[in-house]
Amino acid sequence: MMLPELQHAGAAYDLDALAVCIKSWGIELGFADVRITDVDLSHAEPGFMAWLEAGYHGEMAYMAAHGTKRTRPAELVPGTMRAISARMNYLPAGVGDDWRKREESHAADTAVISVYARGRDYHKVLRSRLQQLADRIQKEIGNFGYRVFTDSAPVMEVALAEKAGLGWRGKHTLLLNREAGSMFFLGEILVDIPLPVDAPISSHCGQCSSCIDVCPTQAIIAPYTLDARRCISYLTIELHGSIPVELRPLIGNRVYGCDDCQLFCPWNKFAQRASVDDFDVRNGLDSASMVSLFAWTEQEFQRLLEGSPIRRIGHERWLRNIAVGLGNAAAGMRGDAGIVAALRARLDHPSEMVSEHVLWALQQHGA
Among the options 97, 98, 135, 151, which is catalytic? Predict the structure, then answer.
């Protein structure tokens, strides 16, 4: 779709037609939906500041490091007038309709890794395609001010996506969509073009509290309020030190992230499959045994997880997480010879943190 005589500096181009084109180009690039919103997040700022004040962000100092820039995009990128918000499905194309049931029934010695992290790093995938979308816009209208974001800077992605009409914020704090559940990534382009905006949609959580009830650590302390310090995704990914002893038994065999609040959300029966193959499972991470992953050397970890989001936690925290999982396997496999042998092989690891978690795991097995 070509637009005649587009000039960014003046009013020679049709903003409505441009918005339609942007959405069409986004779909061509693999996004499931693209919407546009203004960047006034004053409605979200008080709640976010209260969340920080309560300390619910834990060690994620970056959440507070930029002051009001996170809630005021025009301060982050001067001149910003609109946010082009996009979502991209990540549920692998090959999974069957029973995928939720399968995810709920992993064996006790299987490493459970969040679905989103089993393939290629989404940061790279979305950033590349958002940049291509920005390039496409620039090809049509000439130079304009913009900046691309994918969970990599102080931007309130869910708040912008909600305001743009991509969905509503669920009680687990993730974005929900009636046609797609929540198994998707979000990304944005902040632009200095006064594009027409889309309308937000109403919430459809109703009286449902499935996500709150199922959370293993009760991290969702109230509807729409998450204490990240208790969240398994935080504990296995963001936390750099030792996992609190009282929370370890609640983690089970989840070694990287946790999907429970999504698996039990009724809306995810409508989850859509990815239109790109980047999120297909690599290295058998949908069914790998914890013992086999625990045996990876640091070199193997770096090589096998090249291009994976898991790589960011490093080998030390990888071993920490799996040690906890192996310890929790004692609930149904207490004293299992293979698990005990794997743990003992790491007992003298040079990292005190790894050794401590291995010792705890061995104690769970009575070894």
Answer: 151
